[in-house]
Automatic annotation (TrEMBL), chains A, B:
Domain of life the protein comes from: Bacteria
Membrane topology: Multi-pass membrane protein
Intracellular or extracellular location(s): Membrane
Annotated Gene Ontology cellular component terms: membrane
Main location: membrane
Keyword annotations: Membrane, Transmembrane, Transmembrane helix
Protein name: Amino acid permease
MF (Gene Ontology): transmembrane transporter activity
Length: 608, 608
């Protein structure tokens, strides 16, 4: 039953050599990998205005030079990541690039930041998208958390089905969103050109503003750069592209950068020209849409696609997290299970863990995760800085043809990213300090896991210098609860093993029962020695363990191995297990984990 | 660690022969077993007035004849249960009495009702007590559910510690409650006698009332008889008494009946004389206390002990439920685990299950379980009726000396109990219909469990007519994941068993890896045959199972037994398990439960 539910939800299992079919072409890849970056346009411009409004509406014209700064940063990032794609065609990403060029520690800082960041991507995007929906349908507002969780479950299921299939579903909303915003910007610009919009709504560029300073401008710039979260997704996911993967990925990256730049500058410019101030309940994009189209079909189309793309932005996390996890797991910094492909060839453990962790973030925050945006942004800019510094080191070290130009591109990117990171810490410390707690915790975890794997590897390695102790013979203990067929079965098996000695062990809670059992035993199995133990504290394991210790001590003197053969009857139906005391399971677990004893389970299947 | 927490909470384990120390003397038994019955006084009289008030305050004088009816019923029940105690000195209770005299089905109806009823006892009493507390401290009202759950956990822990120790703690509040009510009734009667209370507050007995009818009076009588819930507790718990148990239990029962009768009639009379009408927020007892003493120390003393005894009433459930469960489990109607004594010699599984189930009732009802009272009462009167009918049959069948008198007592009890039960169904169907659903479900469950145990018993019995098939030899399969010490260890063990053949099995997910592994194997273990399997769907269990089926088929032809020896390394610390794919566990569970294969686990303990 659970297996057929699984089949229904995620489809039939795929063979390993069906992997190729799941690769992405450029159009689908653009949709699946850029929803995070493009959806940032929905909140990025607003973040700039939110800082400027603290000085006054007259300062809004500064959004134009700040936007230019963000575009420069965007260009540097896109060019830099383009270089990374060709340098690391198997999927670079900040972790690999930082690790290879700067060393293991910076690599882990980048990897750890991103790992947490993808969880934040999912939680923040889904919550924001849910808010957009429940703003449109206020009746649903009380169920915000439930809706967000349902969306996470839905996206997780889609991703477990496999990348291509989810891409087909995801492509339409992303392109509809791009179409909607292009229509909005186009019509808006046309109306400005036609003179429909009063120029009195905004202060002219260059108006002097009291109270403005470098700190405030840098803060606004940092805030605006939260629109750039998500641009690294493509460089992480190169193996998902159709061949030639690197060149396809690079083209997709450029297309995404161009789209992002156009949408971002369009929104910033319209907001400036319309003189829009950020408001508590209505987003900036919503205000622009309302002023351009009125509250008609186009308004709801724009709001609807915005909500949709925010929820789908979560999907970027689902593409990137499992791949990053594979890289970290291959280097033995996180559990090995992340490297296993599921039935549909996706890294299902990574997908599932990401879904669970983001639900675990949504629940305590009751779906109000928006104030995690600065934390989320800083978690992106730390790896941005590291990977571009890594590229700088690479160019200086390898000096390929034209390396000076490449170095300049990455240096610009590194400097700006680093500045943005520092800006976040200086101007929004209250919201980003947690990164200083969780990063060390994660790094320590990486360290401990790696240490464990190394220790295991050493202990499992075959060394000719330490040959195993030979086993000269076997002593077999059979715990028996009564005179039944299950016991008979196990005894027959024990005898068939040609052991040096077979000993039956009976534990009873009352002395009288003990003697009676011994007599019955002598009649039934006169040739098998019975050790009868009385347990005043009604524990089976305690006296059994004591006996095993004694037997083992004696056996080890002559290199004999002790085996405990446990009779276990298996009921026909699962619920029957509740009806039987699971002593066999307890004994087995105790002996395997607490004592060094070989445990054999002889099943006896009940027929009804 | 968990073990030391357990020690702290419930104390050191006790030996089986320390059981005698835990027996109850009469004073303690009265406290521990009568809190349920006595606490009913806190709501019983109110239930009568709540029905009468629907006609008008003039009808309140009817509470006196109705109370006399309840007292007659109480007398019949006490006398009847006294007879049951002597007839069934090993703990009678409705289940045993009904089963032995009326047959298995009526017995199970009684047992099933009581089983559910004890859960209701705990949930209802604790909720009511919590309400009393949060009424006194309104600031706590928002935490009603949490407080109720904490009380259940507390009482469960006390009961896990053992009966005597919890009795010492429980004795004081019960006696304080009795003292408080006696003071209240005494002072109240004195004030009436002294002429302090105006006789104009109540209508005289015999005042004609419009709209009163037999149906209404019967309904009021049924409601009032909810004050009698809990009187059966003593007859269930005879084995808990010190010797001579039956006579001690009978004396305790009479004492409890006398106390209950005095408190009940006192409260009813005062309520009538003071002309008290039931109100939404203030209980009848609280109104009497306020009119008698004013809102001073005595008022809070009475309210406080009332709250306490309501919570402790839950304890009656904890004394009765596990014993009833033992009786049902010995007859194989519920899982065997209920017959096992825990570390402190209490039937800990019954205690734990009762605690969990009552929390499961408190949570969905958000602590407002008061409207379950009619359901609770009907669940008591069904077994009352059955056990007294059972006693009637017993007297008629056995005809001991003086049986006519005994028969009359039980017949009176049976008729009144049956009438009350019918009254509940006629007058409060909306609140008690669920009993018609859950009783059949429970009876079906009893039937299925008994059927399973019988089937198991038959299958396990040794029958000389069907001798076991002898085992001629062994074939051993060893699944191997790599060339490691763990595998070496397991192979050495497999070879030591003198098997006919040892076969290593390797499953790989890629064809190339397969060939490479075969070559390495030949160099390392040239004398052990290796079967190398390719698994396109990345499942280990699937190809392994297929191979085992083939081997088993061949082996069974010559009576050879197939054993799978699974190498398993055991990490040093629990959290390390997360870092390793638990393939061994999965394979073992699959082979044991789905296939009839003997599974041997060879542990390899890591040292760091």
């Amino acid at each position: 039953m659970p297996s057929s539910i699984k089949r229904f939800l995620i489809g039939r299992p795929l063979k390993s050599n069906e992997l190729g079919e799941q690769k992405l072409n450029k159009t689908k890849a653009l949709a699946i990998l850029s929803s995070d970056a493009l959806s940032s346009v929905a909140y990025g411009p607003e973040q700039i205005l939110l800082v400027l409004v603290t000085v006054g509406a007259a300062a809004f014209w500064y959004s134009l030079p700040i936007a230019i700064g963000v575009l420069v940063l965007l260009t540097a990032l896109i060019l830099s990541y383009r270089q990374i794609i060709f340098a690391y065609p198997h999927g670079g990403g900040a972790y690999v690039v930082s690790k290879e060029n700067l060393g293991i520690f910076p690599g882990l800082v980048a990897g750890g930041s991103l790992l947490v960041d993808y969880i934040l991507t999912v939680a923040v995007s889904v919550s924001a998208g849910t808010d957009a929906i429940t703003s449109a349908f206020p009746g649903l507002h009380a169920h915000n958390v439930a809706i967000a969780v349902i969306f996470v479950v839905l996206i997780t299921t889609l991703n477990l089905r496999g990348v291509t299939e989810s891409a087909s579903i995801l492509a339409y909303p992303v392109y509809l969103f791009v179409l909607a915003l292009f229509l909005l910007i186009g019509v808006g610009l046309y109306r400005i050109a036609a003179g429909d919009v009063s120029p009195a709504l905004h202060t002219p560029v260059g108006t002097p503003v009291a109270g403005i300073g470098l700190f405030l401008l840098l803060r606004a710039f940092a805030s605006g750069s939260s629109a750039l979260t998500g641009v690294e997704a493509i460089s992480n996911a190169i193996p998902n592209f159709k061949e030639p993967a690197p060149s396809n990925a690079a083209k997709t990256l450029i297309a995404m950068g161009a789209l992002l730049a156009l949408l971002f500058s369009g929104i910033v410019y319209l907001a400036y020209y319309y003189g829009i101030a950020p408001r508590e309940e209505v987003t900036v994009v919503s205000q622009i849409a309302e002023q351009t189209f009125g509250r008609g079909f186009m308004y709801f189309f724009i709001q609807g696609t915005t909500a949709l793309i925010l929820i789908l932005a979560a999907n970027t996390g689902y593409s990137a997290f499992p791949l990053l996890a594979v890289n970290l797991a291959k280097d033995k910094f996180i559990p090995r299970m992340f490297t296993i492909r599921g039935d549909r060839l996706g890294y299902s453990n990574g997908i599932l863990i990401l879904g669970l962790l983001s639900i675990a973030l949504i629940l305590p925050f009751k779906g109000r995760t928006e104030h995690l945006i600065p934390l989320y942004a800083v978690g992106v800019f730390i790896p941005f800085t590291l990977s571009q510094t890594g590229m700088m080191v690479k160019w200086i070290r390898e000096k390929p043809e034209g390396w000076i130009a490449k170095l300049i591109v990455n240096t610009a990117g590194a400097v700006i990213s680093f500045t943005v990171t520092i800006m976040f810490f200086l101007t929004k410390f209250g919201q980003v300090w947690t990164v200083l707690v969780f990063l060390p915790v994660i790094l320590y975890m990486f360290h401990r896991i790696r240490k464990h794997y190394r220790a295991v590897g050493e202990q499992l390695r075959l060394t000719p210098s330490e040959p195993a102790v030979p086993i000269e013979g076997n002593v077999i203990l059979v715990p028996v609860a009564g005179l039944t067929r299950v016991v008979e079965n196990s005894l027959n098996y024990a005898k068939s093993l040609g052991a040096y000695q077979v000993i039956a062990v009976h534990v009873s809670f009352e002395r009288e029962e003990n003697e009676q059992f011994e007599q019955e035993w002598k009649r039934w199995q006169p040739d098998v020695r019975l050790v009868s133990l009385y347990s005043p504290y009604r524990s089976i394991i305690q006296p059994l363990t004591k006996l095993i210790d004694t037997v083992q001590h004696k056996a080890s003197e002559s290199n004999y191995q002790v085996t405990v053969v446990i009779p276990q009857f298996i009921p026909k139906k699962g619920w029957h297990n509740v009806l039987h005391n699971q002593s066999s399971l307890l004994i087995r677990a105790h002996l395997l984990y607490r004592r060094n004893v070989i445990v054999t389970t002889v099943p006896y299947h009940l027929k009804k």
